[in-house]
Amino acid sequence: MKIEIDESRCKGCNLCTIGCPYKIFQAGKKPNRKGVLVPMLDRPERCTNCRLQHLYGRVLCGVCQMTCPDQAIRFRDEKPGETMKVAIEY
Amino acid sequence: MQGNIACAEGALAAGCRFFGGYPITPSTEIAEHMAVKLPKLSGTFIQMEDEIASMASIIGASWTGKRAMTATSGPGFSLMMENIGFAVMTETPCVVVNIQRGGPSTGQPTMAAAGDMMQCRFGSHGDYSVIALCPSSVQEMYELTVKAFNLADRFRVPVFLMADEIIGHMRERIIVPDTVEHHERKSLQPGVLPFHPDDDQVPGFPEFGKGFGVHVTGLTHDERGYPCATNPKLHEQLVMRLYNKVEQARKEIADYEVTNPDAELVFVTYGSPARSVEQVLHDTPGKKIGHLRLKMVWPFPEHAIREFHDAARFIIPELNLGQIAREFDRHTSVPVVSVPKLGGELHLPSELKKLIGVNE
Amino acid sequence: MSYEDWYRQDRLPHIYCAGCGNGTIINCTLEAIDEMGWKKEETVFVSGIGCSSRAPGYIVTDSLHTTHGRALPFATGVKMSRPEFHVVVFTGDGDLAAIGGNHFIHACRRNIDLTVVCMNNQIYGMTGGQGSPTTPLGALSTTTPFGSAEPAFDLCELAIAAGANYVSRWTSYHVKELTKAVKKGMETPGLSFIEAMVQCPTNYGRRNKFKQVLDQVEYIRSHSMMRQKYLQLMEQGGAVPDNTIVVGEFINRARPAMGVPR
After folding, report:
1. What's the pLDDT band for B360 if we cut at 50, 70, 90?
2. From the candidates A18, A32, A71, which should be mutated to test the interface with C, based on the most C CB atoms within 10 A?
3. Is there a domain that residue A11 lies in?
4. Is B232 inside any structural domain?
């Protein structure tokens, strides 16, 4: 499971940057084609939901996805063959 | 049977199963009768907090596939106007009974008038076309209520039953038919866009709960039902269709009665003044007097005027200051005499006879 | 299934400004509906006019986008004629408290089995930032250029007094709590009123010294106080800070309700 930001929907409000307990979302610096400062992901493999969802079989945190007013944040399963990255921060 | 009760009975016979209303003289008997009868027919009666809400509730009920109606009088009718416009824009079939009383404002709650004839046609903002029926007897109160439901479902427009206090509170013997005509609401075909019109300019009805997932909005919308309020072409197309779907059928649905089409002197009436004119015709058998009685005033049946090919003068007695006389005048070169009467009483036959030079 | 499946994907992105909290509230409501397991064809969304009321247009179910302030009577018509439908009303503060105030009181009094989600942004956003009945005292808007002189409405207290069965208030910051509250409201027979305080960066924040969206959200977060704590403070006679947003469940009772399917 990994986090994805849909650039075609993101309006650059940066609301995701305050919700995440791991501060995975960082304010974007470079405007994209639409001139929107899409937030950047800082080591997204730390995300609880991404790490542990397959163990629990349900959405664990998901605050960023719920908070995003533009429905731009999604959790996606890794493609077959793609390695799942996890990192645990103490 | 009282006129208002006949209206309620007609509605029940037509399959009306939702009534949202607010008490107002002189239409209250309709609500009272519906409150007694509807629960027994597993229908819903609800008394709303005002007429705005009554109109809103019947639109909501109509979208769930029920035949719905409300009844009111002048002041309440004015309150309903915004939501009537919504019903027109969203093509919601519904029936509004207006038992007219003297206005403006509170006016004469217990007296008759026909002062809302223009309001029902032009009252809401924007351009549109509606259907308005005018009963002039208790029997017609029953029949035209049934007809109103059928027309509403066929054209998907609000249909008005524009009676007045005289007809509403009058008691007459009526014949209640065993079965009434029932025009089924055309359902939306699967795979068709929810606001895509058929050949008759009326789209199929995407009833709520059938899985159509339709978005109903008062904003200018495209055939999918999605708002596109800034597209001038689309707006023109939509409004023209809403207007034309009724107007192009005006000849076919027109409902009027013609007496003595070869007369030179012709009375034109709708609603209760027809009764005075009938009396005049009855009292003067020697004189050839024509009578055009409109049962449907909107869309205006201008072709009915041409049935009186020898007419030299049209006399239009009305319980207002000539609202329909002016509309009538637009369609004919023959002189039109408006006989307005305010105050809540009907034209006396003797007044009308004096007017046409018949002495008793 | 997740709330994503309830959106009309062909209509997104929606018209809301960047940073507007309405999208968050729709997410939470749809998530709650998803958890309820309602069928799409038995769910109807009704709304009035305003920013919040554009929401049903983005949802796949049958929906009514009606006239200003009249969402509740329309919903009453739908619910009373087909009680088996699940009817959710999206509304805003101007829609519900100003022009639709009377309908709101009566819907609460009748206690019709509706779920009303009010997105309270304390301003008329769609028309360009005019003061609304919930604009706080002293706040600036285009029609209150010297600060609002009128005290604001407390919609939750109003709903309780009028007789709603379930009342709670959360904010666009408290997404998890809001989702739970909406779900609880849907489970409760009778009228459930959930007020969601949302930020309006374009028309409210800009005029009221919130330079960034995050400033306003931070303000909402830091000024929120749980109802239990608030009641405790009031009991002890302690001072409640100005502009406190009391959040939490206000009431959950079982008054007789209308339109509950048998």
Report:
1. low
2. A71
3. yes
4. no
Structure tokens at C57: 């247009």
Range of the domain at B295: 257-355
Alpha carbons within 13 A on the beta-carbon side of A68: 26
A-C interface (Cβ pairs under 8 Å ≥ 3): yes
Instruction: Give the domain range for residue A17.
Output: 2-76
Q: Do C66 and B86 touch (CB under 8 A)?
A: yes
- CB-CB under 8 Å, A13 with C213: yes
User: Mind telling me how many Å the CA of A88 is from chain C's nearest CA?
Assistant: 24
- Rounded to whole angstroms, the Cα distance separating C9 from B164 reads 51
The residue range of the domain holding C202 is 3-7+21-252
Within 8 A of C212 by CB-CB distance, chain A residues are 14
Last residue of a domain, one of B169, B190, B215: B169
Chain-chain contact of C81 with B68 (C-beta, under 8 angstroms): yes
Distance from CA of C249 to the nearest CA of B (A): 28
| Residue A85 belongs to a domain | no
Residues B133 and B31 grouped into a single domain: yes
Question: What is the ipTM for the molecules in this complex?
Answer: 0.94
* Judgement on whether residues B156 and B261 belong to the same structural domain of the protein: no
Phi, psi of C63 (to 5 degrees): -150, 150
Residue B92 has pLDDT above 70, yes or no: yes
Domain assignment of residue A17, yes or no: yes
How do residues C231-249 score in pLDDT, each as one tens digit?
Answer: 999 999 888 888 899 999 9
Q: How far apart are CA B256 and CA B275, in angstroms?
A: 15
Q: Within 13 Å, how many C-alpha atoms sit on residue B92's CB side?
A: 32
Handedness of CA A16, A19, A24, A28 (dihedral sign): positive
pTM of structure? 0.94
Return the residue matching tokens 């208002």: B4
CATH assignment at residue A34: 3.30.70.20
Check CB contact of C8 with chain A, cutoff 8 Å: no
Contact status of C99 with chain B (Cβ, < 8 Å): no
